[in-house]
Amino acid sequence: PGPGPGPEARPAVSLQQLKQQRDKLRQYQKRISLNMERERALARQLLKEGKKEKALLLLKKKRYQEQLLDRTDNQISNLERMVQDIEFTQIEMKVIEGLKIGNECLNKMHQVMSIEEVERIIGETQDAVEYQRQIDELLAGSLTEEDEDAILEELNIITQEQLELPEVPSEPLPTEVAEPTPIKNRPKPELVAAS
């Protein structure tokens, strides 16, 4: 024998059969309702004609059909509840299947990258960052002692240039003695200490 329908095909067929039964019950209800209306109208006609016994018999038949309608309402409600339960179960199955696929993907990813691998990569990254920090520190303080001495010497030269006095004029001084003007105490420029 060939392969039968898969597990998903069977619930779909059952669901279709339930829906068909529900629809047939609804059609049956319509047929009974039409019959009841006709028999009620016929019972009126019989009463007008004085045929009370036949009218009573038709009304008993109508009453029985009303009870049938009540029972078919219950059966339709049960069928609809079953249809809804099956449809919801199918949705749940799809969700579970999705979770299963997701778990398989996660497991494959975890096989590719274990916790030890992640720890190793993080450790290597931290080592690389520390190594770069050490290189940065070396470059920032890479001046030798000779460089430091040359920098201090250049600082002293610049400071001396600022302190040099103006040149003395070569012309003779006037012979008149001018009244001495009080000399203001000028602050002496301070030398900047080299650090």
Can you give a write-up of this model?
There is one protein chain. This protein has helices at 9-48, 52-112, 115-140, 145-163. The protein contains four helices and no strands. The protein has one domain. It is an all-alpha fold and 195 residues long. The radius of gyration is 55 Å and the shape is rod-shaped.
* Low-confidence spans: none
Strand content: under 5%
Taking all residues together, what is the mean pLDDT? 79
Structural class: mainly alpha
**Overall body shape:** rod-shaped
Helicity, in percent? over 70%
User: How large is the count of helical segments?
Assistant: 4
Nearest-angstrom radius of gyration?
55 Å
List the helices and strands in order: HHHH
Number of strands: 0
> What count of domains describes the coordinates?
1
Protein name: CHMP6 protein
GO biological process, one term: vesicle budding from membrane
Keywords: Coiled coil, Endosome, Membrane, Protein transport, Transport
Subcellular location: Endosome membrane
Helix/strand layout:
Layout: H1 9-48, H2 52-112, H3 115-140, H4 145-163
Helix pairs in contact: 1-2
Features:
about 200 residues; mainly alpha
Quick recap:
By secondary structure, the protein is mostly helical. The chain is 75% helix and 0% strand. Helix 1 (9-48) runs antiparallel to helix 2.
